[in-house]
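Colleagues,

For the teaching module next term, I've prepared a clean inverse folding example: a structure given as tokens, and then the sequence designed for it. I'd like students to try predicting residues themselves before seeing the answer, so please don't circulate the second half yet.
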């Protein structure tokens, strides 16, 4: 009987040793995989990530490319955690070709304005005339003094939106500041605000405080009507990466995180889908350029609800999706030449259906 007990204890002890060995050897498999670190490109190169490693639907890639070609796309990129997953160029476009951002560049102006505020050069809650001087509009002084820098950031100046040429004669009163949302070129006065506040040209300040810090190329074309930024596609992606990281580039907080969070959240109570010159998805309603109609539902129904976007005429796009740690870039000519929308178009919803077929 004693030998039986000894053998039982030996077998039990051996079994426990086997279990312990098994648990130790499998420790790495049992622990959750380390989260992939966010990547920021150097000036010399850019890391990539394969579609296969993300377990995406590779059979849906070609239909996406076909759609992009059919819709007059020049360049298209998808980044995940800062790494390039797709980078496609069409119609003679290359990774060094400059192209206009159109109104997607408004987000560059908003960001630069925020930087000027964090440096103590301006306050967005101050009336714009403090920087632009009295009589910068054709409105009565009492009404002009209602217009703050923040009203310019949120498209709520109340000034006439019928003429795209931003000169004093055209800046007439329509409604009290803050009571009417209307997409209009008067936002460009923000560039003058920053220039006056910093005592240098807007582009000089922008280059030093934003462009050069994140390694962008590009230039502002200060035309008679439009002030438009031009750059290559990867520079657009660099700014998208800054936005994905709430204004931080590597270890430097380029734009104050609190200001940036204000930028990508509803900025007024008229159009919930608009921040500080950023378009916001997932809200209960939205308005579009050129009208006062309020539409029910999200901005882009097929896109992730947490997406925010820089949108410009002829479908220049930076889509930022925090939940997927993803950025999508599109440059090109109008997807529908008969309807070259200043911002939102039906292209967005169709494109996201094609992207979803790949990533989901």
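(Answer key — instructors only)
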């Amino acid at each position: 009987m004693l030998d039986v007990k000894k053998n039982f204890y030996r077998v039990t002890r051996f079994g426990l040793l086997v279990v312990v060995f098994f648990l130790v050897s499998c420790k790495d498999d049992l622990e959750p995989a380390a989260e992939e670190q966010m990547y920021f490109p150097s000036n010399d190169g850019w890391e990539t990530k394969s579609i296969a490693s993300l377990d995406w639907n590779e059979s849906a890639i070609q239909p996406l490319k076909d759609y992009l070609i059919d819709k007059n796309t020049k360049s298209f990129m998808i980044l995940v955690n800062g790494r390039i997953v797709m980078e496609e160029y069409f119609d003679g476009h290359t990774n060094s070709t400059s192209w206009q951002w159109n109104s997607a560049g408004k987000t560059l102006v908003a960001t630069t304005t925020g930087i000027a505020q964090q440096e103590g050069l301006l306050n967005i809650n101050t009336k714009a005339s403090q920087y632009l001087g009295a009589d910068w509009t054709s409105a009565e002084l009492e009404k002009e003094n209602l217009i703050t820098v923040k009203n310019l950031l949120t498209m709520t100046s109340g000034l006439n939106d019928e003429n795209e040429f931003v000169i004093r004669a055209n800046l007439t009163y329509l409604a009290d500041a803050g009571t009417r949302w209307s997409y209009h070129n008067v936002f460009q006065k923000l560039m003058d605000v920053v220039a006056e506040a910093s005592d240098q040209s807007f582009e000089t300040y922008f280059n030093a405080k934003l462009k050069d810090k994140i390694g962008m190329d590009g230039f502002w074309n200060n035309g008679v009507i439009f002030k438009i930024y031009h750059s290559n596609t990867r520079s657009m992606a660099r700014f998208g990466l800054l936005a994905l990281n709430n204004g931080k580039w590597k270890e430097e907080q380029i734009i104050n995180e609190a200001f940036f969070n204000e930028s990508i959240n509803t900025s007024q109570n008229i159009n919930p889908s608009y921040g500080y010159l950023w378009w916001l998805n997932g809200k209960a309603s939205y308005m579009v350029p050129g009208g006062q109609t309020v539409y029910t539902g999200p901005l882009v129904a097929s896109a992730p609800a947490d997406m925010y976007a820089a949108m410009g005429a002829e479908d220049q796009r930076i889509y930022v999706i925090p939940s997927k740690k993803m950025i999508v870039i599109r440059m090109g000519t109008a997807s529908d030449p008969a309807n070259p929308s200043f911002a939102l178009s039906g292209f967005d919803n169709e494109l996201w259906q094609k992207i979803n077929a790949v990533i989901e």
